[in-house]
Every structure is written in structure tokens, then in C-alpha cells.
Design a protein that fits this description.
With 316 residues, the chain is of the alpha+beta class. It has helices spanning 113-120, 122-153, 158-172, 199-204, 211-220, 239-244, 277-314, and strands at residues 2-8, 10-16, 21-25, 32-33, 44-49, 52-57, 64-66, 69-71, 73-75, 81-84, 87-93, 177-183, 189-196, 224-226, 248-256, 259-268. It is 36% helix and 28% strand.
Length: 316
């Protein structure tokens, strides 16, 4: 009989696969419940196919990885390590009877692993799979930017641009809280748009963000990421980080043509290492699109004001 057991966190999961279909996810009606915000409600499932088990991703947001490769579906082998969110599970298969002992292998039949892998085409298959994953990431990246550009171009005013931007960001980046702050006339950051993933967080936590992180992103005109803000030496003096128990944070400036407009700030109060360098690059690109949309909106408002002024002037 096969089983899954967790090595990260150790000992939390030890589940024997007794049914033909095993569903894994965050909701309590799953067979294996993994309490992690990175895991979808119905994340993946294990299907018995003859003597084998197939792992199938159920269109989850953050994906399923087997031996560090993202998969949509794959047959499992004993010892495979499955990464789902912050969990790492090992697939183990127990046999009822001892397998037959193979005949002794002579030295002439022993080959180096690399040579054997080349003969079986494993190196080429692995390279092809990595190239496919890279193409998929790149295609997803450009598709998201295309959708954001379309949406922002259709926005009617500045507030709609800000709210829509945060909504789109939450569709692709696993943040618990997000805010957009713009600089006012005095050069102070003003909260303009807020979004939270869970209503429980909205009810329980006052939306206070780290001005320390936001100010650093503004001053350096560069996005920054921290995987555990409480212990990050860059933010030792940040009282809001300690008060809000901020774990992971992501912050990028909104700027164009050397003019800084504000920042997009995301954080996660539950998990360390919630964001990746890919998230940082994507959020930076989104901020650049926002900056152009804000500038275009301001130009249109200025043109409307000038038109009203000329109309009023013509009356005299």
C-alpha cells in the first residue's frame, strides 16, 4: 500500500492511500487537508491507475511540483518529492511481498549514471521540460501584462485605475494584503487603494503597512522583496513591521520619466518566502503600466480643465 508523508513540515502528514481517488487541498472536505494560504481549495488529486498512482493538478493557482519540476499530471515513482505550497510530501510505496532478487551484475554491465541517462534520453527530456516551463512562464507573463494594459486603458478615472490594478495584482500574486499609496503635494505617502484576500484579515487587522519598506523603495527607485521582514537587517528600525507581524513583503515604486508617483505594497502576515523574484519582476512591470495610465489620466483631466477655462473665458 502506498502512502504520503511530509518532510516539510516534518510529521504533519502521514496518509495511507486506501481509496482509488485522493483529493488534496485547503478545504476541510478534502481527503488530505493542508492548511496553507498558498494552497488552493481543491489543489490536486491522486488517482489510482492499475498498479500506479497519477498526480493531477486541479488548475491550482500556485501549481504542483514533483522533484522540483512543475507538472500538470504525472505518474509517481517511490521516493518522489511533491511540493504543494509550503508542504513537501514524499510518495512511498510498500510492497506486500519481497521483490525478486536480480542476478548478479558483472562489472561490464555497470555504467555511470550520466552515460545511462544519455542513452535513455533523460538529459534531453529534462532539458525539453525545463524549456517548456520557461516558455509557459514567459507566455503567462506577457498575457497578464496584455490584460492589465487593456483593463487600465478602459478605466474611467484615477480611483478606478488604482482599484483595478490591485484587483489584477491579486489574481496573479499570492498576497494577503495590498495597498497603493501615492505622493501628495507635500511629498507624503497617502493611502489611495486597499485590498485584502480574506475578510477575516480585513475584520481583524487594521490596514497599517510598513512605511519603512515603502520609503526605501521610493528612495532607491527600485523594487524590493523581503522573505522575513522581522529579521531582515534592512528594516531593523521599522516599528510597523514588528507591530503588524509582517513576514513577507513586496514593494515597487510607481514612476515614469524620473517622476515618482507612489508605490504598490504587498505583504503576507502568515508565511515567509511568500513571494518570488518572478513576482517582483511582474509587479514592477505592472507598476510601470500604472504610471503611464496615471499620467494619461492626468493629461486628460488637464485638457478638460483647460477646455472649461476657455469656455468660461469666451463668455466675457
Amino acid at each position: 500500500m502506498a502512502r504520503l508523508f511530509s518532510i516539510i513540515p516534518p510529521g504533519e502528514v502521514n496518509f495511507e492511500l486506501k481509496k482509488e481517488l485522493i483529493r488534496i487541498g485547503r478545504m476541510p472536505d478534502n481527503d488530505i487537508v493542508l492548511n496553507d494560504s498558498l494552497i488552493s481549495r481543491k489543489h490536486c488529486e491522486l488517482r489510482r491507475e492499475g498498479e500506479h498512482w497519477k498526480l493531477v493538478d486541479l488548475s491550482s493557482l500556485n501549481g504542483v511540483y514533483v522533484n522540483k519540476l512543475r507538472v500538470s499530471d504525472t505518474l509517481l515513482a517511490p521516493g518522489d518529492i511533491i511540493a504543494i505550497g509550503n508542504f513537501q510530501l514524499v510518495f512511498e510505496e510498500k510492497f506486500k511481498s519481497q521483490p525478486e532478487v536480480p542476478p548478479a551484475i558483472g562489472p561490464e554491465l555497470i555504467k555511470p549514471v550520466r552515460e545511462l541517462g544519455q542513452e535513455l534520453g533523460l538529459d534531453a527530456r529534462l532539458e525539453q521540460e525545463n524549456e517548456r516551463l520557461a516558455r509557459d512562464r514567459e507566455a503567462r507573463y506577457f498575457y497578464i501584462l496584455y490584460q492589465i494594459t487593456r483593463a487600465l486603458n478602459g478605466a474611467n478615472n484615477l480611483n478606478e485605475i488604482l482599484d483595478l490594478s490591485l484587483e489584477l495584482v491579486f489574481q496573479v500574486i499570492n498576497a494577503e494584503r495590498g495597498v497603493i499609496m501615492l505622493l501628495d503635494k507635500k511629498g507624503e505617502l497617502e493611502l489611495r487603494s486597499v485590498r485584502v484576500r480574506s475578510q477575516n484579515i480585513a475584520d481583524a487587522i487594521e490596514i497599517t503597512v510598513s512605511k519603512t519598506i515603502a520609503r526605501r523603495a521610493l528612495e532607491e527607485k527600485s523594487g524590493l522583496i523581503t522573505n522575513d521582514a522581522k529579521y531582515d537587517p534592512r528594516f531593523k528600525s521599522g516599528q510597523s513591521i514588528i507591530a503588524c507581524n509582517i513576514r513577507s513583503a513586496l514593494c515597487v515604486p510607481i514612476w515614469e520619466r524620473e517622476e515618482v508617483r507612489g508605490v504598490i505594497y504587498l505583504d503576507n502576515l502568515l508565511n515567509t518566502y511568500a513571494f518570488s523574484e518572478e513576482d517582483l519582476k511582474l509587479l514592477t512591470a505592472i507598476a510601470n503600466q500604472m504610471a503611464m495610465a496615471i499620467r494619461q489620466e492626468e493629461l486628460q483631466d488637464r485638457m478638460k480643465e483647460e477646455a472649461v477655462f476657455r469656455t468660461n473665458l469666451a463668455r466675457f
